[in-house]
Automatic annotation (TrEMBL):
Domain DUF559: 1-91
The protein, known as: DUF559 domain-containing protein
Family annotation (Gene3D superfamilies): VSR Endonuclease
Pfam families per the UniProt record, alphabetical: DUF559
InterPro entries recorded: DUF559, Endonuclease_DUF559_bact, Restrct_endonuc-II-like
Length: 93
């Protein structure tokens, strides 16, 4: 893993792991060079990213936009959720 998982990442992994979510297989901390994405589902070509407060800065937004454009150019769909939404409103995630 690239870092210690956040509480939001732990909760999201509990939701996604072991094919509990729509019977799909997700991987966490999956390498898509040059990035490591939070969660990846090969069957759907889907990347799920969880964002904390550092992503709500001008630099964070610019980095995330570049990352999303790169991943979408590979044919992947990128979905982003705020950590707070995962932790406090997981029913909408």
């Amino acid at each position: 893993m690239r870092h210690d998982a956040t509480d939001a990442e732990h909760l999201m992994w509990q939701i996604l792991r072991a094919q509990r979510f729509m019977n799909l297989k997700f991987r966490r901390q999956h390498v898509i060079e040059p990035y490591i994405v939070d969660f990846y589902c090969h069957e759907l070509s889907l990347v799920v990213e969880l964002d904390g407060g550092q992503h709500n800065t001008d630099v964070g937004v610019a980095c995330d936009n570049g990352r999303t454009q790169f991943l979408e150019a590979l044919g992947l769909k990128v979905i982003r959720y705020w950590n707070d939404d995962v932790l406090n409103r997981s029913e909408v995630v």
